[in-house]
Write a structure and sequence with these properties.
The chain is α/β, with parallel strands linked by helices and 294 residues long. Helix content is 59%, strand content 8%. Keywords: DNA-binding, Transcription, Transcription regulation.
Length: 294
Amino acid sequence: MNNLLITRIRNKMKEFSKGQKLIAKYIEEHYDKVAFMTASKLGATVGVSESTVVRFATEIGYTGYPELQQAVQEMIRSKLTSVQRMEVTASRIGDADILDSVFNQDIETIRRTMEEIPHEDFYRSVDAIVAARKIYILGARSSLALATFLYNYFNLIFENVLLVKSTSEGEIFEQMIRVDERDVVIGISFPRYSRKAVNAMNFAHKRGATVIAITDSPLSPLAKEADYALLARSDIASIVDTLVAPLSLINALIVTTSLKKSGELTQVFKRLEDIWDEYEVYEKVDEKASGSAL
């Protein structure tokens, strides 16, 4: 958990009232639950008023309870187990409609990402990608789906793109053996962070490549060695990894790079359409038949 938070609590412990000591003890022992509790719920759980919880937050140096709660959330991103995620998800949804709850959480995640992402870093990342000799894309575990999606489109836009297979660290480094300062390496990982992805990013950084991290927090181990950290929110309490915001960010990367190379891409896609038609890659839909069925 957040060492700064714990330090603040322990430095003030002797000055706390009885109620504040109950809050401090509960935070230390049940931080995974506190991360998603309202001030009112935390107060009711430990037997104090909501105002006592708010005063506790300001007493240890935060502007209010939301800032204290955010400090806990930021530091447990890589610590929640699958069992803890299930417990928190069930608690948050409660008796509400599950479908609506999931949609609303995803909407909120995208909204927060749009507000918080550093636009300047995003556009500088695009410039680096367009100028790169070779683009390496790496994503492990659930992030592999995002990496594959990005690769499929970048492979149409650029001539030299590699989707790094992350079956073992030895194979990762073999695929990246020629990476240098002319290249861009895009690493994608969200809690719980992949050790393979982190090590690959460190390797690319040491070789002088431009490193772009698509992750969730400046505290992410992927962000530490990155030249550009493109931060997208993920719902750390969800049973599954909620990757709607990272996917939106990747969509933005694809759209922006394709617009920068629109002159070249027009001819490429014309040739692709001819190939797809010739080899009947896509099923043709009879619009007249579809209309008559209505």
